[in-house]
């Protein structure tokens, strides 16, 4: 499987990463080189093998479903690139989404 | 008298207890060394005021007879562990100004044990790399140089700053993380000891995530005993990490002197690569001979899927990374780049400007292998091969107690070498990646020098949650090797 330039643009858009047009050809080459190398996995017989999603077949532990902290508005917003403070409270601010 | 920066942690602990040195003196010596060797670029952030305050508190507890296990021991923390009130960057522009309001569990445990925080060490961006050359804060320089050659060498990666700082005696030990070899490969390149414990041994809470099913924290130190001392304090169950193991933490240090008599050591034939450097092969044979002389028995074993570990890793790790790194969106923390336009335009501009080339490549690979139509061919296939790799180890551990391999296929290389294409760099982790995929503990211990005078490491792998055997075998290698070479660039 080999990526064409259009697929590179599509996955960059899916990943929300701006790729300049002049970078597409180089990225396409690099990604195809990596994918060609990965391709050797196709020779491994895996019929009937149960996929291993994590390092261990572990049972994830559950914690108690209780509120353990709160009132952390200032800490949560301390690193916000932009914030809005008004009568309703303090918020993360983003470019206008709804006209 | 030993210079304070030459102490091992065990020696410093004894000197502090006997009041032959104060935590303040020990800390000041390390801060001076960091300043003098700042051209190594091992640290992204140094925290001298915090360090001296920690030292004063440790001295007060020691004076009161209330010393904690690591009281007054100056440590460095990889800049991937969130530290409350101290900038944490993951060596990325996208987190360049991030100041966490919380502390990672592992670093919190070290401070609670009395350790002194010297600062945050450099790394490959988001821990993606094997040479510490992808950092947005510049390359780290390996304190070692080839004989008769003044070129700067890489310290390995991604925990290159931690390894360089320990080797150059800028700290007594450091935290690190290992997703595919990021503790063991830099330890091997710098003549230090680094252990990646069993997946689940250390909490991942508060560590900037790269590939969550592979990431594990561990220490880098100058001796096997010191690594054992640090790992004990870093380990333990944490309800804040659902993959953290609720297993008792043994006294790893006690295992160090226990010897290897009667242990069965496996030597996997698939790790003998075509075209492997004769020096690496010779070191491996030497390691086998040492363990035999110390009373272990050697067994030829097979791990048939070894050669598929790296390509499996380069599906699993980028897939998880592409998902984990989706959080860097310019909204809640970190960099934001706005060039007009809508919210999507802001995301794309922020992430385009904030991520370096290697991180971007891995996010794109990960996005591709998870995308509709390719998930089964790549990601599901990789998970199945991962199961086979783990099965190989399960089979092997029926007949052996630990496995001995080289740590890396070469010694440290020069900055710029091996960077013709990404795959060449990925091959650095050929011996270390399988343990991450299978979740097993692995240690790198310095075992000799190559012809150009650079350190080489041997790797010991163990069963899940059997770091004690790993420490026993590593200590036997350390004792037999008598590795006492020193890097050219170092404190004192």
Write the layout of secondary structure elements.
The complex is a heterodimer of chains A (99) and B (492).
Chain A: H1 5-14, H2 24-38, H3 73-77, E1 83-86, E2 89-92
Antiparallel strand pairs in A: 1-2
Chain B: H1 9-17, H2 23-36, E1 43-46, H3 48-63, E2 74-78, H4 105-112, E3 116-121, H5 160-167, E4 173-178, H6 184-190, E5 193-196, E6 216-221, H7 224-234, H8 252-256, E7 264-268, H9 278-293, E8 297-301, H10 309-324, H11 343-354, H12 357-369, H13 375-396, E9 402-406, H14 422-426, H15 433-438, E10 442-449, E11 455-462, H16 467-481
Parallel strand pairs in B: 2-3, 2-4, 7-8, 7-9
Antiparallel strand pairs in B: 1-3, 4-6, 5-6, 5-10, 9-11, 10-11
Helix pairs in contact in B: 2-3, 5-6, 10-12, 10-13
How would you characterize this protein structure?
The complex is a heterodimer of chains A (99) and B (492). With 99 residues, chain A is an alpha+beta fold. Chain A has a domain at 5-43: Histone, subunit A. Helices cover 30% and strands 8% of the residues of chain A. Chain A has helices at 5-14, 24-38, 73-77, and strands spanning 83-86, 89-92. Chain A starts with a helix and ends in a 7-residue tail after the last strand. The model of chain A has no long low-confidence stretch (mean pLDDT 91). By secondary structure, chain B is of the alpha/beta class. Chain B has a domain at 4-256: Amidase signature (AS) domain (Amidase signature (AS) enzymes), CATH 3.90.1300.10. In chain B, 37% of the residues lie in helices and 13% in strands. Chain B has helices at 9-17, 23-36, 48-63, 105-112, 160-167, 184-190, 224-234, 252-256, 278-293, 309-324, 343-354, 357-369, 375-396, 422-426, 433-438, 467-481, and strands at residues 43-46, 74-78, 116-121, 173-178, 193-196, 216-221, 264-268, 297-301, 402-406, 442-449, 455-462. In chain B, α2 runs antiparallel to α3 (48-63), α5 (160-167) packs parallel to α6 (184-190) and α10 packs across α13 (375-396). Chain B is globular, with a radius of gyration of 21 Å. The interface between A and B is large, with 53 and 75 residues.
